[in-house]
Amino acid sequence: MGLPxxxxxxxxxxxxxPPAVLVIDDDEALRHTVADFLADAGFAPLLAEGGxxxxxxxxxxxxxxxxxxxxxxxxxxxxxxxxxQLAADPRMARIPVVVLTAERRAELTGPDVLLKPVDLDxxxxxxxxxxxxx
Length: 134
Known about the structure:
Structural class: alpha/beta
Shape: globular
Oligomer: single chain
CATH topology: Rossmann fold
Strand order of the largest sheet: 2-1-3-4-5
Number of strands: 5
Radius of gyration: 14 Å
Number of domains: 1
């Protein structure tokens, strides 16, 4: 049985109803687990394997996602560089980012940082708070 299909490209003029959340993780199984959970919770998941693909998707998008779920260790453009590029772009800088990480470091704390293995209910709680949809 294959994984369900989620968007990784956006057609011109595409607008998401329900609100879109971009999930960036190089672990395909985790990416789809999070996407399935978000779809069941009323979001439209967009998927990217790494930071480079995610930045390209966001730059082409007419309508931006309401939030981003980001693994810090992704290929090509890692999570740190992705966040720097996001912050440098006025159009994208305001998108809330929830970080998923297996790293246990002091600078990686706060309500928008969740440790793996991820508690999906906690992720939903943080996303709803970050997007005002709670």
